[in-house]
User: Fold Propionate 3-nitronate monooxygenase from Agrococcus jenensis.
Amino acid sequence: MTPAALLDDTRPVMVAPMAGGPSTAELVAAAAEAGAFAQLAGGYKSAEALASQIDEVRARGTERFGVNLFVPNLHPIADADYEGYAERIRDDLGGGPVPSKREDDDAWDAKVALLLQARVPLVSFTFGLPDRAVLAAFADAGIPSMQTVTSVDEAREAAASGVDSLVVQGAAAGGHSGIWAQGVLPADMPLLELVAAVRAATTLPIVAAGGVARPQQVRALLEAGADAVAIGTAALLADEAGTSATHRAALVDPAFERTTLTRAFTGRPARALVNGFVERHDAGAPSGYPALHHLTRAMRADAAAAGDASRLHLWAGEAWREARQAPIAEILDVLTPEP
Assistant:
């Protein structure tokens, strides 16, 4: 299955991979049953847990799906900067000893080997561009690749590397930006303009993503040169999504008034609802991924379990208010423009 064939044979609206819980096997299978392509999120999982999810998707009769991996493009942080930030957020962390700095590759080699062995239908990458040897291994296995880019320059480099298709992600997207370089934010360019600029620079299939919540947006992006559009935040309230109860409640809570791109939770830019933790720490948050992700991980898990939205990473795109609770099939129906 080539990316072009996939985009031609499914709905023009896809479901993006969302790490940390929302992307369940049930969500992927339900989207497939509705005629849409969806992906599992390999980030933060062990290879064994990811293998179990792949098996579950296939057990549900789904053979058209993708798996997303975080490329180990680390944004390193100096020990002094790590310790200084840990001290500033100590009270939010619970006041105990500061965890030692941890910088890892999210079990990259094990997950690459798993996806090659499992012969998944498609693999996608974010946070950076894989080595050409990795891309060649997937190509040799007949597994098409999809690369997240946030600029024309990244798109050109990805196309030259041999990837098969692109996810063009705008700054309005919820959750982590896929931007490659450390210490910078994605350009504040409307997704429509970014897609048109990337389309002018490459002939690769394009999936547009970031802040999409209406069928009119989908139609405009397709007319601008996208071959499909991916939704993330719009699927967070889907019945089949694994979004935590605390996160779900925050997405419909009128007390939250805006989103922002912040490094406060993970050390990498990510768009979230502005809550107490962001208000206290965004301005002083250094770049440092995955070290800050590991630093705050236990705090965020405890906050989710306790219903404490003030210390949780409430990932949300700029159009979060238009997310609705419904089966994913119904959400896709609403967002798919009339032919």
